[in-house]
Amino acid sequence: MKYLALIIFLPFVAISQDYVDIDLSDILEEKKTTTIIDKTKGEAFKGLPEVIFLMDEDYPPYMYVDKEKKIRGLYPSMIKEISFRAGIKPKFEALRWDKAVEEAKKGNKGLIGVYKSKMRENFFEFSEPFYDEIMRIYVLKGKGFPYEQISDLRFKTIGWKKGFSYGSRMDKARKLNYFKVIEKKSLEELFDDLAAGKTNCLVIDEISALRVQLKHKSAQKAKHLELPLAEIPVYVVFSKHSKQKKMIEKVNKALLELQLEQGFSKMINSFIRDAIH
Questions:
Q1: Are 189 and 182 in contact (CB under 8 A)?
Q2: Which domains does the chain have, with CATH numbers?
Q3: Does residue 269 sit in helix, strand or coil?
Q4: In 27-50, which positions are buried (b, 16+ CB within 10 angstroms) versus exposed (e)?
Q5: How many CA atoms lie within 13 A of 222 on its CB side?
Q6: How far is CA 10 from CA 14, 85, 194, in A?
Q7: Taking every pair of C-alpha atoms in the chain, what is the biggest distance, in angstroms?
Q8: pLDDT for the residue 15
Q9: Rounded to whole angstroms, how far apart are CA atoms 174 and 150?
Q10: Rounded to an integer, what distance in angstroms lies between the CA atom of residue 5 and that of residue 9?
Q11: What is the pLDDT, as a whole number, of residue 34?
Q12: Strand-strand pairing, 230-239 and 131-140
């Protein structure tokens, strides 16, 4: 899956402001992708069995509910393409992330956009990863600090999106009180806390941060440290209690088909272009 991330993170060239360092020129010139689902005008899933997928209601641009209460984001779009090839009809239910995780533990509903951790592996069956998020550490301009490994975050106060896991190593460091955490429900709130001096840094993926920085003033005061925190794969999961291993196998087979078709590449580029507009 690492090549998916490389499609996005092309050779870095600064544009607009110094907090934006992704070369978007080729992506912006590319024509909008028409997917199989678009071409069928909603008829692709007719007669297929329905499967409910839970998702975060507020993690733009990956998965969220817009002002008109419509499901939006890259992950629902990717899951639609996967579902079509897996022979299922996806239905999305958006909840606050921590509630979505708890809901998924209890029943037969899938959960999309999940980071893997040892704790979650106790509860969930994981698909193959379908996307990689590049996690970065954001600080106020002029208030950076040396960072090479997680131990360099010791004694810092970190902004953390409520209900999120940033991988087993970060979860373990948090549990051992290497750093203090202040949780917020939205990325805007995280950047507001950083600008107000309530936190030393925050952790978020690069594309989500870019979207907020183009629209939110306090976010424009921040920049990321040079070294990424991690490249974190995201997955589709089902509760182990639901005994959905066959469904996971279908998802994995469909995912492989899309990779071979390079179907996600153009979709991801379209997503980046739309996310910054």
A1: no
A2: 15-132+233-275 (3.40.190.10), 135-230 (3.40.190.10)
A3: helix
A4: beeeeebebebeeeeeebbeeeee
A5: 35
A6: 12, 29, 28
A7: 57
A8: 27
A9: 10
A10: 6
A11: 45
A12: antiparallel
Crossing angle for the helix pair 206-213 and 187-195, nearest 10 degrees?
70
Can you tell me whether residue 242 is helix, strand or coil? helix
Q: Which two tokens stand for residue 152?
A: 């360099």
In the three-class reduction of DSSP (H, G, I as helix; E, B as strand; rest coil), residue 267 is classed as: helix
Buried b (16+ CB within 10 A) or exposed e, 143-180: eeeebeebeebeebbbbbbebbbbbeebbebbeeebbe
Per-residue pLDDT for 33 more than 80? no
Q: At what angle do helices 245-261 and 74-86 cross, to 10 degrees?
A: 100
Beta bridge mates, 63: 59
The closest alpha carbon to 132, from 116, 146, 143, belongs to 116
Which residue is associated with the tokens 């960072």? 147
Residue 84's closest CA among 54, 60, 48? 48
pLDDT of residue 174: 95
Cα–Cα distance for residue pair 193/220, rounded to 1 Å:
13
Distance, CA of 124 to CA of 26 (rounded, Å): 38
Checking if the pLDDT of 256 tops 70, the result is yes
Alpha helices in the chain (DSSP H): 2-8, 25-29, 36-39, 74-86, 97-106, 118-121, 168-175, 187-195, 206-213, 245-261, 263-275
End-to-end alpha carbon distance in the chain: 26
